[in-house]
């Protein structure tokens, strides 16, 4: 696991700040006391494992922070976003906290986003909203951390993170807890789990072998009581008997089928006869009924002849000729009426055209009269106005005043104005007289037109009356013609019907002879059918007896076969049980061998890991405690045995000085972290976080620790160190300096100095993800399978092959050469 970045909102002294960590190397966080250095590490722990419960230890918050430890005093809500990478995938965790009464709780809607790096692109493959417990469980699954159910994430605070004032905790734990942490971080717990599982499996296998032995013994006894050979002999005898019965059955079935066939043939003949007899009786009966109908037909023909004025005995040919003559006569009259109708229609059309023309002229005259009356009315108004004007002018002239400007004028000028008005008055009068003369002429013309219209309308009514009469006469004649045609058709129909009836009556005599002959044949056929049916019943009874006997034999054979099948099933079951018992016995033997092999592998792996741990521990301890007469033994179970050298002899002691204890605890943590990064199946190349690791150290010891951390950082590890020590600060590939506004109590990143290639590009990328402003591709996936951590079979390749497998990704940035 590598920590990439952190966003803090209202967390302790931080209001809203982003901190980015390089992928590898040593990052040193420094600043004055209270500037928020440890707050960053507490936030990483809270983001990964959630809030912890409160305790009495005053230094507890540095390792296991609660909500009260994290939420800013003047805020109601706070938020942490953590971006980290694990096994090639990048994860963004967001937790939000809120103040509730006297406590601070984790809001139960937390975010977890998952990204993959493909072809130098960052692709989001999952985005989940989870409850607090769900998120805690998911993070542990992702990191492969499996611990017993407990409140504190001891594996994290013992192997990856050394909290402030808590470096010695790894050695102060009881042996069971420390042993569990070492086993789980290094993957050794798998061997213990295997042994427990193996014992449980072997117990099940032994129980299964005992169970199979009991079943095998019971089946052998059961098979011994049954005689399979005797059953096979009885089956053979019955099968021979069944073959003989089947042969006889075939012969009897053939005999029965032949009788059945003959019966059906005679029954079919009998049905044909009965159908023919029915037809003959029906036709003869119908012929008898037709004699009365023939008389009715002849009476109808006589009645038609009388209606036509002929003798009742007149032949139908003469009647038809008379009808055709009358039709020709009526058709001639209809043609004459049609000619008259055509003439009347033409005449009516001429009258209507002339009438329409007269009405159009009348409309024109009436419109002209309307215009003349309007003009006359206008001229009359003008005349009246001119008369009034003339009277006014004369009155003003008598007073010596101009009618136009109302100024005094000469009398001659006034006379001239009056003459002008009189001239206009005469002109208007003349126009009025002309209009009245034209009105008189137009009214005379209108009177003549109205008389002509009345005369034309009378003529049209007369033509209409004649036309109606012609059409009524034509319709009456056509109806008479239609009646004559219907009469002719009826005569033809009656004549045809009479001929048909006469023919049927003639044929009925020969049908009676055929009916008598078929009735005789019917009686003979019925007698033959009765005789065959007696023989069929006899054959059927014999056949049913043979079938019953065959069924009994088959039933016996089936019963014997079932008995044999049961025996064979039991024999198969016995073989399967014996094979299964052998298999379980083989499994028990194999498990015994595997248990011994696993014991040996566990010993060798454990010895290899403890040897590596000793090597790293002694290397670190020698660096930290150079010249000290202190020696520490590391037992095979990773417990320590402090010793001291006095005068050339080594003595085991119960305790060391405070500084020596801190140095040993720190060496133990660093060695365990390095061993885990080498051997752990889920924590390879993981982060190492140290919070004020030099507390109580002399400057010389700080310098030696710097050398150790520098070596760890050079091994492609990620080391995050919080310190206020100026000497330790210098080892950082990346230095993050914090400052705090003492008035507002707000911490900020004052500066970040990183001697890492393309770090600014990396920083922008991380901050973009933390802010949610970075545009990334999204892949919809139903479910992201998280591969559980644990024992994984490995094939270790040669160096060349491993190098070929490496490829540059979006997050691969390399140190500049020193």
From TrEMBL:
Annotated ranges, domain Zinc-hook: 355-454
Recorded coiled-coil stretches: 202-587
Gene Ontology biological process terms, A to Z: double-strand break repair
Annotated Pfam families: AAA_23
Domain of life: Archaea
Keywords: ATP-binding, Coiled coil, DNA damage, DNA repair, Hydrolase, Metal-binding, Nucleotide-binding, Zinc
Protein name stated in the entry: DNA double-strand break repair rad50 ATPase
